[in-house]
Amino acid sequence: MDIHKPKPWHGLREFLKEYLIIVVGVLTALAAEQIAEALHHREIVSGGEAALRDNFARFVEFRTATEREAPCVAARAGEVRAILDAAGKTRRLGRIGPIPQPLPLPWQVDTWEATVASGAAPYLPQDKVVLYSRIAMSGVDLYAAATREWEEWHALESLSGPPRAFSEAEEAQARDTLARAVGHAEMVRFFARHTVTRIESTHLLVGKAFDTAIERGSHLQQTMCQPIAVDQD
Length: 233
Fold this sequence. Notes:
Blueprint: H1 12-90, E1 92-93, E2 95-96, H2 110-117, H3 126-156, E3 164-165, H4 168-202, H5 207-218, E4 230-231
Antiparallel strand pairs: 1-3, 2-4
């Protein structure tokens, strides 16, 4: 077997040529590694923002449904007040039909937590991180207000049923519960409008995607639009 010994350099020119080849090779490898890493980070960010886009569309959908149902909520609150006014005079409730209940909506930006957990946040611009975080926090406030509204309307279901005596204490409690339900419904609409304004500023949901979310929201079930049946006999 012939063993080829490395040829000695003949002069500075050959040395520089070999050196340049090595340097270029190392730099090319480093550049390729950085490009691959950058593409990987971009893929993580793209996936996270795609999930956020879907989540934001759901918020636009829910905001639309909430705004459309607001007159029905006000009408049901007016009917409950009329029931309480009549019962306050006679100290008796008539036969009251079912009290409509708000449709539970998942006001949460759970995809932001997943995006942070995936490691995408450090590769987003700082202003985007702040904006997405604020939207997620608004989602927490929305869910809390909506939960209280659901609980209060659920408590008002106790008015339904056959005719019966109705004390001053029960009346006071029902009026307080109704006031809280109305107040939290207003909070939900306020937070929803504010959150959707922030969502629009992200430019993640624009054009047809935004319009489609509005269209879906306009077709969500409106559970508060059925009048309350009342029989005073």
